[in-house]
Amino acid sequence: MGSAAPTIDRLRQTLAGIDPSLRPALPGGSRQIGFDAGIGAVLGGGLACGGLHELVPVGPVHLAAATGFAMALAALSGRGRGETLWIATDYAASEAGGPYGPGLDLFGVDSARLVMLRVPRAVDVLWAMEEALRCGALSSVIAELTGDGADAGLTATRRLSLAAREGKGVCLGLLLRHGGLSMPSAASTRWQVAAAASEPDRFGGLGRAAFELSLVKNRRGPCGRWIITWDHHEHVFQPAVPVGVAAPPLDRSDRARLSHAG
Amino acid sequence: MWLPRLSTDRIERGLATRDNKTPHIIAAPSESALRLTAVNNAATALGLKPGMPLADARAMFPSIEVMEADAEADLRVLEAVSDWIDRYTPLAGLDTPDGLLLDVTGCAHLFGGEAAMARDLIERLARQGFHARATVADSVGCAWAVARYGDVTVIPRGETVAAMLPLPVAALRVEPKTAAALARMGLKCVADIAGQPRAPFAARFGDGLLRRLDQALGCAGEPITPRLPLPSAMAERRFPDPIAREDDVLGTIEQLAHELGRVLERRGEGARVIALALFRADGAVHRLEIGTGAPLREASRVKRLFEDRLAVLGDAADPGFGFDMIRLSALVTERCDPVQTGLAGSDQSEELAHLIDRLGARFGLRRVTRPVAQDTHIPEYAVAAMPAHAAVRAVPAPICAGQDSLSPVRPIKLFERPEPIDAIAEVPDGPPVRFRWRHVMHQVRRVEGPERIAMEWWRDDRGNKLTRDYFRVESGIGARVWLYREGLFGSETPRPRWYLHGLFA
Prior knowledge:
The complex is a heterodimer. Chain A is an alpha/beta fold. Chain A is built from 8 helices and 12 strands. In chain A, strand 11 (224-231) and strand 12 form a beta hairpin. Among the domains of chain B are: 6-69, MutS, DNA mismatch repair protein, domain I, CATH 3.40.1170.60; 136-142 and 151-228, Orthogonal Bundle (DNA polymerase, domain 1), CATH 1.10.150; 233-311 and 318-339, Dna Ligase, domain 1, CATH 3.30.1490; 413-503, no CATH class. Chain B has 14 helices and 17 strands. In chain B, a hairpin with a 2-residue loop joins strand 13 and strand 14.
């Protein structure tokens, strides 16, 4: 295995010469959004700003979860300073509701740093997103596409990826498709998002937002599946305590060793 | 300026052949009969006059062509002419139904004097198929009267009274009834009235007649109400040969923006609203207006904004045979002090403001918004979408921050109108057990609530005063939604209805 790594690096460089969107992240210039160790390892550190990422809900009911995940990523990319642009068609806003300021504030997303754009058609969404990614004044752009997002095919997403790269590598591009998991795309990653059951508090009420994430496409590494929660006070993703897993055995070997040592 | 044949000109311009031999008349019902309202030159030559009953005209010429009157179309044509006439002076007002009032003070010398200007105006309008008569005078009333009842083009300064005196009374812009009553008394021309004592006229006709008299003689002022807002600064360019290529148009816009920017810079101002007028060679005028978030005078940015705007308009800004004049004007300006830019790269907020301007120029400023918190506890009114270029950044009021819950108490997405759902509760005023939303049945796994929100007493214009009990619900598949039951069971309604208002992450 040791001899394969240089070969893969060389191949990557060759590919980068052919397609600029495959070029490795700018050294030092591009920021990354941190996850916990499990997801971070797969992404090579974290989710790269200055790139395009796609989020697709598992079903129509899970659209709000995908929206929440996108908003949480936007909050992380802004780090309390950057601005977020939300682009949706009129139809998308009436179909799936509009972003709600007070709720976003409570969710950990500063609604005073949110700009919302409503456009008439899906192609306008793509145009606006490209311009916004390129301008380099925003920390994240979220674009909502209804249906299977057929307007955002391979060519359109490649344009968006390049625009995100041109924009000084600071802007996180998030394409939120209402459906269309099988659409071809040039995005760096594609996430399938479902709402997961939240961990209830001790009175049985609702817990923190929990997401079941499947990384179904990753240009830089393997895919995976995780359940995470969003801590809206600390602004951090945390791995959810798996529900329904058998309790660890009491006579585990590591504990046994510790007790010997103690 | 008077367009005596506006209605018939409108129809003849629409015909394939310009044939001024065919008589055209236009009729409309008035005074319990169909009467002629407009006739063209050929019809006048046959002895037809406005006001004549249509039956008489038909009896004289059975084969004559009659059109129906269309006052709205006439007004549209008049507005189009007024748009076009903007090239002479920005201060132009409509004088319905068939006239325009222009303030040419300080503009005439650009066209070689008042007489030359009027001649040019009439000639150009004639080429477009309009019969026009124009008079330049000291007072609006005098110009109006001489254009219609006289045959002089320019009334020199100080000769207003002399020009007015021989004209008939109707030239004073009085009601036809008043004019008829004056004629019965033997007062036929302006001189008959101007020399008389004023009190009897005021007693008999009110002050309308005397005011019109004073306005015509130049004793009383009469402002012109401009149809379009007057720009604070403007730059324009005329082309001997019309230009049609988009690059040329945009290049000209940038040059004009430079000129405009220099004017504004001297005043220490920047433009907040910029209007572009493209005068097409055939007389049509395209007007575009863009607003900016911050005072702007940078030419390249102005050009960029109009580039985006023109790209959307497409065929709506069709150059046709080309534009022969382009004008850029700053309608609203604001103080704009030069800012010292930092050495450490460009300013993010300025970049963002420009992006917002560009998105606004393309999609409309109302479509780019920021949420601004409002002081109310009704969920749908608690936040308002303000245009992003004007929004003041307010610190959002933390609502319900004291609520003891692990999850946020407000949804991240809210529906504009709450969606009706079928919900089943164990008891009529209890939390829901299952609900059906968009044809999908959801079992309620966890629920928090109720949070009771009563409507404000003054918001009862739709008769909607029912109290809402909100529940935060997590369904069996993990979806978290915000439901409410409208109406208190028993005291407000016997059958409370359920709605889904928002979605949690």
